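User: Structure tokens for this complex, please. No commentary.
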Amino acid sequence: MKLTAHAFKVSISEPTAAITRDDSLVMGVGPNDHIRISLNGSVVSSVIITDELVKKGEIYLPTLIMEKCGAYEGDVVDVEYCPLPESIRSIRKKIHGGKLNKEEIGSVINDIMDGVLSEREILAFVSAFNVHNADLTEIAYLTRAMAATGKTVDLGVRPVFDFHSLGGVPGNKVTPIVVSIVASQGLPIPKLSSRAISSACGTSDFVDTFCDVEMDSESLKNAVRTAGGVFACGNEDYAPVGNIIIKAERPMGIDPRPVMIASIMSKKIALGTTHLLMDLPMGEGAKIPDMEAAEDFAGDMISLGTILGVHVECAVSDAGKPIGRAIGPILEARECIEVLEGRGDPSVAAKACAMAGIILEMAGENDGESKAREILSSGKALKKFREIVKAQNGDPAIEPSDLIPGEFVKEVHARFDGYVQYLDNRSIVAVAKAAGAPSDTGAGIMLDHKAGDLVKKGDVLFRIFAENQSKLDRAIESARSRRPMKVDPEPVSIPERGPITARFPSKEMLDLIRFRS
Amino acid sequence: MKLTAHAFKVSISEPTAAITRDDSLVMGVGPNDHIRISLNGSVVSSVIITDELVKKGEIYLPTLIMEKCGAYEGDVVDVEYCPLPESIRSIRKKIHGGKLNKEEIGSVINDIMDGVLSEREILAFVSAFNVHNADLTEIAYLTRAMAATGKTVDLGVRPVFDFHSLGGVPGNKVTPIVVSIVASQGLPIPKLSSRAISSACGTSDFVDTFCDVEMDSESLKNAVRTAGGVFACGNEDYAPVGNIIIKAERPMGIDPRPVMIASIMSKKIALGTTHLLMDLPMGEGAKIPDMEAAEDFAGDMISLGTILGVHVECAVSDAGKPIGRAIGPILEARECIEVLEGRGDPSVAAKACAMAGIILEMAGENDGESKAREILSSGKALKKFREIVKAQNGDPAIEPSDLIPGEFVKEVHARFDGYVQYLDNRSIVAVAKAAGAPSDTGAGIMLDHKAGDLVKKGDVLFRIFAENQSKLDRAIESARSRRPMKVDPEPVSIPERGPITARFPSKEMLDLIRFRS
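Assistant:
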């Protein structure tokens, strides 16, 4: 029926239209039904029926849908009941325990992409598509369908390397270092990172402080051609449906493995990745809580790679303690460049070289880690870093001292002699966010001491940086209640171990694979 | 914060409050958050933020929530952000493939019952709790938790028998006959049926035409004491959480097995059932499409019964053709009593005696079906039926001729000589509903012929009954487009088979079980 469109200025969990009871009865539409709005066939998946705001003959539509339809305030649009989309049958089949084929999975992903499925329907799909109810073939179909929702780039080179961290470790600034080491050997590595979702600083947040991170596919290709690698920001160009799914998952805080690995891999497929190293930070509260979970995850990821023609290796790292000493965009950028210059906290170089080393081994190196160390200490990595910064429109001569954190600083001191206990990662992140990170790029935390250190009363334990006094106060308040760093008279035993605690496949297994191929 | 409550006269998929943007920022509440409304702590699980309808300092609340809170139009209520309930953690764990314990499942069910979880959250739980991701222990916990949301009745007798059909077969009027046969042998059978959800007539819909079906637990106990059984209507007294879950499932048309069997069994547990016979109508489009599904369902149901101390047997029946010839409340009531009087379509008596026979065997009879036939033909079942009708405040002398269907009748004739093809159950139901069934009790269909019959041009194939001309016209229109009965010159081969095509456990297995016990 013809209805006059008005903009519905509301925030509600999903695209929702409001119509009167009378009009709903004529169309035969109820609150859980989908309706189709012509000018161009946009579908709205949720309906409010009310006579309070809306008059007969009117429809209130979210601004986004108005734009999608090309409708303006007061335009007459054609509205009709839209039968449950075919993809709902596929979701239902999955909820009932059935196996989905390529077309069924494709229809679900396309309808998510087109906004035909509501968030509740996406959530039901993701919930049903869980580890016990989705097999690798289905996950592979899902991956390809997700990749097909965006651009695919042919970089014109083979092999293509990539590095992906599951995240969750504060201060994990190793990506530009890994990329620089790998690219310095002539191995293409077009690494796309993300901004922080719940953390205090994502890789793109700190890289953004010294060069561009938003790159279209053309500039990405050029940068890989000239510099051999990038550390840019993943955007809506590649497998964009993943972001819609994440939005539906977020309110319940879920991220089940089959959809997670399909989502990760779909972006790699879009970029033509042939060799992928996954960093799996393991620890309490992380996505990978223990070695069993790591083994399960690695097993699925490696098998999915095999199906899709991507050689995948996984390295288990320690999610328990921050990498380096800096948390927050400018502070992390500074520490990252210091490490490239041969200074900075040794934990950053150690993790970067261990990870880069594995990638070098994928490319045929025997002792990748030693090679990576050599590349870093020789200055070759720094040189490559500056080339990539230039390719991303940054100043190739950037120095740590050019990066100035917020000028409002609070030093937190030890109140008695003792040993620094294990740091509470969540609290460190919470304090850094209270100080304004990541949107205030100068905000964050510097850890002057780390777990196990012996400190004297009055020593500076850590410093909070902020861009203004009120956020500094907010962060101090947060630090007071959360106590992210505690000192205790008892010494803490810190196990001596490398940055990587396990690899999948094992080195022995890899030797076999290499022998075979 | 204190807000003035107004009634929000909208139909929307779940309890939703509307507040202004300003107030939402002060409370820190977004569209997917839960809020808690005091006077009595009701939780609203969905929020709309808009400045169009609502003024600062106001909150619009669904009428139901107003009632729950005891708030009236213009009352000031206290509204606060409500952190994600603990049960969300359990749902998240299930989505991530974990196993839930008794307390975790209990918290989910209690929060569903209390309205704390939104429909999207319930849907996510049900979708994750699927056949591949829920084991019998979890289903047993779910069953007990569901049963605990309502009353439990101790009828003061043991054993307690029950009969439950998965439904989906038009004209399935056997329940009062089964109950009468079983109760006539002194075996207590407090059978609670339901009204139609998507069908043209549920058992309670036709029983309601000759006696009361709504019984509180006190009158239920009395009726079982005096008459030995009832054929009443299941209501909100027993495991009421099941209805909330069904409401969340309905828009997507899902009914996954683990939640379905827990829901069925929870009502049995509430009534103290010790012996349960499940009727599983099998056929295309039914909940049980094939023998593999029947075996899976029966296996789970029997094992769940074992854990919960209920002896379960399952009988697979034919979902392909209507039982008897009448569809619609009064028409079905009439046919049901005719069969009890030894007349009527033989398919009704056949199914009723086969089902009742299995229950008699549970109680020790050797050849239950023959015994059931004998009870029916001797008039003992009819006598018991009249006792139960009396206990349910009906006229014990009720005769089929007292039940008068709608006076607006359309006879549909064969247009040429030939054989009646397989009937289309869905279309028969659609036509009966178009005629007004089940709410117009006199509406429905009488099948003068069934599949396989040889008919001559002009013979009456079926008759549509309605209570007024406009609904009759609507039904005729529906019959014209759907053609629920087709005649073809080719004969149809109707396989000769009894009303029950398989039993679980098999009779041999049962003999072993009985020998053991």
